[in-house]
Amino acid sequence: MALSWNEIKDRAIRFSKEWQDTEREEADAKPFLVEFFNIFGISSKRVSTFEHKVKKLSQADGYIDLLWKGVILVEMKSRGKNLDKAYQQAINYFPGLKEYDLPKYILVSDFERFRLYDLEEGTHQEFLLKDLYQNVKLFGFILGYQTKSYKSEDPVNILAAERMGKLHDRLKEIGYEGHELEVYLVRILFCLFAEDTSIFEKRLFQDYIERKTNEDGSDLAAHLAQLFHILNTPQQKRLKNIDEHLNQFPYVNGKLFAEYLPPASFDSKMRELLLHCCALDWSKISPAIFGSLFQSVMNPIERRNLGAHYTSEKNILKLIKPLFLDELWREFESIKTNRNKLTEFHKKLSTLKFLDPACGCGNFLVITYRELRLLEIEILRALNKSGQGWLNVSDIIWLDVDMVYGIEYEEFPARIAEVAMWLIDHQMNMQISVEFGQYFARLPLKKSANITHGNALRLDWESIVPKNQLTYILGNPPFVGKSNQNAVQKADMDKVFIKVDGAGVLDYVTAWYIKAARYIQDTTIKAAFVSTNSIVQGEQVGILWNELFSKYKVKIHFAHRTFNWKNEARGNAAVHVVIIGFANFDINEKYIYEYENIKAEPHELKAKNINPYLVEGKDLVILGRTIPLNNVPKMIYGSKPVDDGNFFFSDDEKELFIQKEPNAIKYIKPVLSSHQFLNGQNRWCLWLENITPDELKKMPFVLKRLENIKNFRALSTKESVKKQAATPMLFSEIRQPKSSYIIIPRHSSESRKYIPFGFFEPEIIVSDSCTALPNAALFHFGILTSEMHNVWIRHICGRIKSDFRYSNVLVYNNFPWPESPNEKQIKAIETAAQKVLDARKAFPDSSLADLYDSLTMPPILVKAHQELDKAVDLCYRPQAFVSEAKRMEFLFELYEKYTAGLFAKEKPKTKKKESAQAIE
C-alpha cells in the first residue's frame, strides 16, 4: 500500500534533519540513497542496483551510483562539487545500457543540493535538502502519484502500438490466435498500465519477467499463466510458499483474469519484445485511447494509422458539455459556498447514470466519467476549505464506474471498454490521493462498468438499465449509409422502422435516434448523438424527423452544425458530422453551435427553437413536392441515354466518326453533363429523334452502334428498359427542352459558395446528370444563382459524401420565391444577373469550376455576385441578412406562410419514384 503524501512529507523532514551534515560521496552515498527511497516506502533492494557496472562509449568501465532500470539513475557527488559535471557523467553511462533499461529521470546531488532531470519532458528542477519536503511531489513517478497530460498523438502511443503489435504478430504466427490471443493481450496491456499507474508497485511486472524468466523465453508463458492466476486470487487464498516476488502482486478481481487460457509459447525475441513494451511509460497513454491502441495492435493496417478508431477528447467534449457537463458546472458554481447544498449536489452527482448504446471501446464513457470525477474533486475541495481533510478519503468518494452503461456489437471492444473504465477510475483515484494526501485505490475491484455485448438495435434497452434510473444517453453510433449496409444492418433497419414510408434511404445511425426516442418516452432523460450530416439534409430529414416529431414528440435542445469529425490519426479521413441533443420535453434555453467553416471553432448561439435543419425555427420538415410552391417554370430532368456509351463521342472520336460516316454530321449534337458543363469540356451525342429509316440505312456505322444499344437494353433486368430495345435510335427517356433553358448540375462541390447555372439553346442536349428549367428568364436565373437560393440548397439539398445533390422535388419545388416583386426589383435582378454572365465571359479560357473555386474566383465575378445578392435580398425584404442562419430562418417563415393549407391539396412525396418531369 503506497504511503500518503502527508506521511511522505513527514519522512522527508526527518530525512533532511538526519543527513544535513553529510559530505562524502565514498562513505555516505549508499546509506543516503537507501534512506532516501525509504521516504517513499520503497525498498532500494528491490528496485535498484548500487555501483552498477557499464561500458561507456570509450569502452572504459563505469560505475553508476544507483540505477533503477527504466526509471531513474542517481549520481552522487561530495558536498560542493559541480552538478553539471555529475549530470554529464550520468549521460555518459547511457551507451552501456539496454534500451528498455534507460532511465526516464536523472537525479544528481551533492547531499546539500538536489537536481532532478525529467528526460522525456526536457526539464529539470533544483532545490536544497532542507526543502525536500516541499518538493517530494516531484518524485511522484516513484509511486505513480502523477497527474499526466495526455496527447493522443504522443510518440509513446505509436511506439506502444508498434511494440505490442509485433508481439501480437509473433503469437499469431505460432498459432496462438482468436479469442485467446485477444484476452491474452488485454491482460498484458493491463499489467503494463498497472505498473506505471501504481496499481502494481513501480516496475513490478517488468522486474518479474527480467528476474524470474529465462533469457530464451522458454518459461515465460508458464510464469505469465502463474501471474494471471495470482492476480485472480485473494491474498488469503494464495499458497503459503509461493514466490515472494509473485506474492507482491495485488488481487485484481473484476473477472479480467478469471477465464482459463491455454498456455502460449515464447522465445528470446518475444521476451525481448515484451521487455521493450515494459520500457514505455504507459501512464502517459490516456484510457480514452486504450481501445484504439488495442484495435491497432490487433490489426496491422490500422497499426500504421493509430487513432483510426480514436475519437479526440475535444470532439467528445463537444457532445458531453452541452448535454450535461456545462449545466452541472453552472450548478456547482452557484452553490459552492453552501455546504449543505454542496453535499446534496454531490449525492445527485453520484446517482447519475449514462448509457452509450454503441460504445465501442468506451471512449465516450471514459471521458464522461473522468469529467464527473474532476467535478467531484472540486466539490470535495469546496467542502474541505478548512484543510482538515478526512480520516478516510474513501468515505467521501461516491462516484464509481458502475454509473455507466454501454452496448457494443463486438465482444472484445466491450471487454476493452470495461478495462478502460477501471484504468480511468484508478487514475482519478490517484489524483484524489495527490489532492488530499491519502493513498486511495479500489483494489480488489468490486464494481465494473455495465457493458453489454449485443446488438443495440435488437436489445430492449430497459433490460440493460431501467429508464426510470437512467439520466443521459450519448454516443457515436455507426455512420453507415444506405448503400453500404450489409444484410444484418438492413434487417436491423427494417425491425426499427416498421411501417415507416421511405425508410430504405436512411443512414444506419438513424435507427439509434428512433430507439432512443422510444426509450425516453415520458421521462426526463436527455440524449445526444454524433451523426453524419446527411440526417439534417435532403430526403432523410422528412422521413426521420417527421417520425420523431409526430410519433415521439422529440424536441431538439442543442445542436452542433456541420463540422469535421476528425480523429487524431495521421491520414485519417475526416467525416462531416453534426451533434444533436434531444429529449421528450421542451426547455427554454436552447443552443446552436455554428461553424464559419467545417474546420473552424464553434460559436454558441441561443435559440428559441431548433428545427431538424439545425436552424432556429418551428419543427417543420421539407418533403418532396411535384409542383413548385410559387408560379415559376417547372424544372425537368435531363434526357437519359441507357446506351452503354454508344451515343457519345469526345472531340477526337467525333471527327473520326464523321470521316467514316459523313451523313451523320447533322445528327451529332453537343451534349451537356454536369461534369462537362462545370469543367468546360466538349462532348457530343447522336440525337436521332427525327431520323427516317431510309437515312439510317445509309449509315452502317450508326447502325452498328444502334445494334450495340439494342443488345445492351435487351439484357437489362428492368422490363421498361427491355422494351426500349425496340427503339435503339432514341434515348431511353427524352426530356429535351424545346426552347432556351437554364441548366442546373445535379452534383456540385460543397466548397463553392455559388453553384454555377447557365443558359443554353435547345440545340444543346441536356443529359440526365443535369436538370433543366425551360422557359426561364434572367429573373429566374438571378434568383437561382443568388446567395438566397444557395443557402437553401446548402440546408435542404441531399448530399453524396459532402457534395450537393440537387433535386427539383425537394429543393426547387419547395424554394420560397419572393412574394410579389415589383417591376423595379425584377429589373434590378435582371441587370445584376446579366453582369454575372458578362463577368464569366471575360474569362473564356477558364472553366466554371475554376471561376467558382473559392480560391480562384475573379474579383469582378465576386463583385457581380455581391450586387446580384443585394438585389435579390431587397426583393425579399429591405433589411440585410446578417448571417446564413438568419436567411434560413426567414426562408422557413416564408415557406410556412406559402404552405399553409397546401398540403391538404397535395400530399408531399416521400418514397415513390417521380414522374418524367421530376427528380428524386
From TrEMBL:
Annotated MmeI-like N-terminal domain ranges read: 11-173
* Ranges of residues in domain MmeI-like C-terminal: 822-903
Q: What is its EC number?
A: 2.1.1.72
The signal peptide annotation in the UniProt record is none
Primary enzyme class? transferase
User: Cross-referenced InterPro entries, in alphabetical order?
Assistant: DNA_methylase_N6_adenine_CS (IPR002052), MmeI_C (IPR046818), MmeI_hel (IPR046819), MmeI_Mtase (IPR046816), MmeI_N (IPR046817), MmeI_TRD (IPR046820), N4_N6_ade-DNA_methylase (IPR050953), SAM-dependent_MTases_sf (IPR029063)
Q: Which GO terms describe its molecular function?
A: nucleic acid binding; site-specific DNA-methyltransferase (adenine-specific) activity
Give all residue intervals belonging to the MmeI-like helicase spacer domain: 179-257
Q: Which GO terms describe its biological process?
A: methylation
Q: Which UniProt keywords apply?
A: Methyltransferase, Transferase
**Where in this chain does the record put each MmeI-like target recognition domain?**
617-819
What's the short name of a Pfam family annotated to this entry? MmeI_hel
Catalytic activity annotation? a 2'-deoxyadenosine in DNA + S-adenosyl-L-methionine = an N(6)-methyl-2'-deoxyadenosine in DNA + S-adenosyl-L-homocysteine + H(+)
Using the record's annotation, list all stretches that form the MmeI-like DNA-methyltransferase domain: 333-593
Query: SUPFAM superfamilies under this entry?
Result: S-adenosyl-L-methionine-dependent methyltransferases
> Under what name is this protein listed?
site-specific DNA-methyltransferase (adenine-specific)
